[in-house]
Amino acid sequence: MNLLDLRVELDVRRIPEGAYSIGVDRDESYCVVAAAGGFRVFYSERGNRNDERGHGTEAAACRDLLERLLRDASVMGFRHGGPMARYEEAEIAARLTRLGRVERTAFAAACAERLWPLFTRCAEVAEHADATVVRGVLDDLWRAVNGADVSGIAQLQGVAEAMVPSDDDEWVFEMGYLQNAAASVAYAIRVWLTGSPQEAVWAARQVYEVADYAARRLHPDLDVNAPNAERELLRTAVVQGALSGLSDDLAAVESHTAGGWASVQHRARQGGAAWARSLP
To answer: Regarding beta strands 38-45 and 48-55, do their DSSP bridges make them parallel or antiparallel, or are they unpaired?
Structure first.
């Protein structure tokens, strides 16, 4: 990534232009500027360069600036001008109850798509996780949602569940992502088999749990036992980004009228890919 690519990326993610400055030290902004030997990234405030870091390459500097913006809830969580989103599971359940089996399944499958980039990433460190197999399971589910006659779909649930890490597996940080990503596929299959809105709610919970897990990793100094810890985690960009994605997917299935579900799948997949890049 170079500075031009960074501008495009920030525009795609709808990051407010007032939140950052490229090439110029501007007050109250995250800045990246050229310097002797490379680039400097910092937050400019009242003439001070806070949390300044040097980088020898343009790509590293661009990545640093992007990550800082994505971690800042004042930039990401409120970029639409609305209040801070909250994870309201009861509301999600109530809205899903008013939908049919196909719509519930499409929502659950969209949740799995949002976590798919993390599954592929974690499959590299987990011997039992087969990304090709699980991708086939999720694709078969979308085919069923789109009206195809998919045989053996009940067996697909077991395939997805087999990818969830067990207590006997060697635990590394990525296992947390893998656990939720694989579970989301299994819950989506269950929605199709049972029609249960609760299974779709549990698929959504996987997205939220991944975001919370990542936020804790990104903010190791946060005292999770403090009275305001939950609110501080909720304010983080990764959690707000996850909640925004869930809200978009639920609204999409609620407003769906006719035709296939390719647009819902594509939006969830693209959104998940962009969001996953901000996770540790």
So the answer is: antiparallel
Answer whether residue 31 is part of any domain.
yes
Whether 83 is in a domain gets the answer: no
Token pair 């299935």: residue: 253
Q: Which residue has the tokens 């959104």?
A: 271
Residues 6+ apart with CB under 8 A from 259: none
Q: Write a three-state SS string for 137-180.
A: HHHHHHHHHCCCCCCCHHHHHHHHHCCCCCCCCCCCCHHHHHHH
Determine which helix (DSSP H) or strand (DSSP E) holds 224, and give its type and residue range. Answer: none
pLDDT at residue 183 above 90? yes
Rg of the Cα atoms in the chain: 20
Q: What percent of the chain has pLDDT over 70?
A: 93
**Do residues 184 and 210 make contact, with C-beta atoms less than 8 angstroms apart?**
no
Question: 65 with 115, same domain?
Answer: no
Q: Please indicate, yes or no, if residue 80 is contained in any of the structural domains.
A: no
